[in-house]
Amino acid sequence: MKLSKITAIFDQLRQGVVEETLIGRGVSGFTLFPVRGRGNYFDSYNDDHLVDHVQLEVYVNSDDARDVAFLIVEAAHSGVPNEGLVSISPVDELLWIHDKRTATDKELSLQR
Known about the structure:
Elements: E1 3-11, H1 15-24, E2 31-37, E3 51-61, H2 62-76, E4 84-91, E5 95-96, E6 101-102
Antiparallel strand pairs: 1-3, 1-4, 2-3, 5-6
Helix pairs in contact: 1-2
């Protein structure tokens, strides 16, 4: 079993485009949640200087990980400096809670 976890942090205004892109390419599940942070760009108008973004996490077959990561990069890109990042990490094991078993790379392959 070879699985990867993709984590992306990007501008919340690009969320809809990212979601549509992933669903359109057969990514069957992902998690989105709001995050606040500070990188090269910061909000100088707020006292804490933190910026609102979206964080996405998706588990995929490792063979598809780079393709999915670049789908996210393309969909999240708006041309402004320092607009986010995407990482790919190996996953040792992933367990389904509903039936108490290990997920397989085949289950998390892109649906073509």
